[in-house]
# Entry
Amino acid sequence: DAKTTQPNSMESNEEEPVHLPCNHSTISGTDYIHWYRQLPSQGPEYVIHGLTSNVNNRMASLAIAEDRKSSTLILHRATLRDAAVYYCILRLGAGTASKLTFGTGTRLQVTL
Amino acid sequence: EAQVTQNPRYLITVTGKKLTVTCSQNMNHEYMSWYRQDPGLGLRQIYYSMNVEVTDKGDVPEGYKVSRKEKRNFPLILESPSPNQTSLYFCASSPLQGSSYNEQFFGPGTRLTVL
# Structure
């Protein structure tokens, strides 16, 4: 599996934007970039995914570099509820379910 | 409410005493999976199932069994638990097609301690 690299931790102030980076220099052409997050004492939850183009949904935006070797998850206005571990995951292909290979993620702290 | 449920949420047991952790989903998903989460190792897949009566090993299947007799249920069985199976376990499900096939839905977790 292609590997992702994320900072261990980041901090943000409430109501400010947060940019969570992910490097995936060995990504293949068929790998999708997925982001999940895990709130304290909960199971992971899906945030967003993309292949080549930038993506937006109600939770976040995903900016993908032109060469696809890195991506950034953007939380537009962080709240205390966004404090979680964020995982950047490369997932093979589309159309069929496949396992998610979680790394150690980025622990995001949000302060008042 | 669409959800994945796991029972029990917490379990303390002793070495060798067979146990089953249940997982159920109400979203009619074909794909179901079990993960374990350990400090410093992230989540690792134990077993998965693409549909009823179709199961396969993940990355760390040793010491575990699963079954998929019904679409909604995917129990994890530890025939003879050992202390190295002390972990936090998550069940997940997803559809194999449709608008949300890329999204896996996770249960709340089962914290297992084997003494």
User: Anything to note?
Assistant: The radius of gyration of chain A is 13 Å. The interface with chain B takes residues 32, 34, 36, 41-46, 49, 87, 91, 94-97, 99-105 of chain A (CB under 8 Å). Chain A has a mean pLDDT of 91.
